[in-house]
Amino acid sequence: MILFFKPGICRLRLFFAAFILCITLCSTLLNSMAQSVPEFRGVWVATVDNIDWPNKDDFNSDSQKTAFIHLLDMHQRNGLNALVVQVRPCTDAFYPSQYEPWSQWLTGVQGQPPSPYYDPLAFMIAETHKRGMVFHAWMNPYRAVFKTSDPSLSQTHITKLHPEWFLKYGDLLYFDPGNKEAQQYVTRVVTDVVSRYDVDAIHFDDYFYPYHIAGKEFPDEASYRQFGNGLSKDDWRRSNTDSIISMLSKAIKKEKKFCQFGISPFGVWRNTDKDPVDGSPTKGALSNYDDLYADILLWLKSGWIDYVAPQLYWEIGHRIAPFEVMVDWWSRHTYGKHCYIGMGIYRANSNPAWKDVTQLPRQIELMRNTPNMKGMIFFSSKTFEKNPNGWNDSLRLNYFKEPVKVPEMDWLK
């Protein structure tokens, strides 16, 4: 049987076929280009209370190394390129330190070295760099004792040597942020790590002044009376936090010009009811500026920090602080520095929004389609072991399919 086609129909069909092929090729090309753009793809590895590593009650050095390599290989397979590892959870150390004792979460007894002996920080840095990934040393600036009822504090712990530097709030001990000797001590601890280890960055989280406990005032009245210098208490507290960030920034860059300094604050800087110009359209949310006395925007504007990683652990459409609203707000307040969005993968299946398998992929796409965004950090490592909602597979096979380098910082070249 012979079929006859009108020339016009054939040309039309050929045109549509070519059009579809073109669209497919363009989509593939654009996706490939997106995959090749430098992007920070990090994960927090929490050591406090053995959240992520080492495994609880595992105090054997060899099995700790094996567990860390397993963790590292898992993240490399998923396409990540950065580890943010907590090396100083509570004025203790995951490395040999002249200032602070070995961590109880490493050896079971605070002050006791690893057995067989090794330097965990040196080991972790070497293994991370071996895989072409970057290593950010995560340190808590002011949290001194995880539980004041803990009887196992080493006699060399700084709270034993200088009890006058500390304030009890709830069940924890904190450095008094208004104490200048305490600030200088923290700076020495950080500088010691930068001088001795090949860390790519020093990373602080959101623990400056502590989160409020209902009905309890942070007990810094004596320091305020002594050092307040006519400022309101809120302004004085912010000035204390500003001064240590400035001091640390100068110390880090003096020691190693190319070592980055990054902060991961709570996700809301300030609400519009307190600041109609720069505040975010959030209502009733806790804020860095008014509650934690951390003026993140000042630190970015002043160039004291190289990146900010706001913890946006809310879902898209959240009633108080929607993820999409906060990503947009932070994109307009980076002041030329890098912004990596902190993503709450740990919240998987915690409510209907986080049971939605598209929640995390939509957040990644939204972040990538927003100006001034340079990447993301996931909290936290342990969650990936469960592959919640198949998100490991989604990262490995789609969003992080092609390996990329972390973005360069022009001001550090």
Spatial arrangement of strands, main beta sheet: 1-2-3-7-8-9-11-12
CATH class: Alpha Beta
Number of domains: 1
Q: In angstroms, what is the radius of gyration?
A: 24 Å
Tell how many strands the DSSP assignment holds: 12
Description:
The chain starts with 6 loop residues before the first helix and ends in a 14-residue tail after the last helix. It is of the alpha/beta class and 413 residues long. The protein has 15 helices and 12 strands. The longest helix is centred in the N-terminal third of the chain and has 30 residues, at 7-36. The strands form 2 sheets. Strands 1-2-3-7-8-9-11-12 form an 8-stranded parallel beta barrel, surrounded by 4 helices. It has a 3-stranded antiparallel β-sheet with strand order 4-6-5, with no helix packed on it. Helices cover 39% and strands 13% of the residues. It has a single domain (38-404), classed as Glycosidases (TIM Barrel). Helix 2 runs parallel beside helix 4.
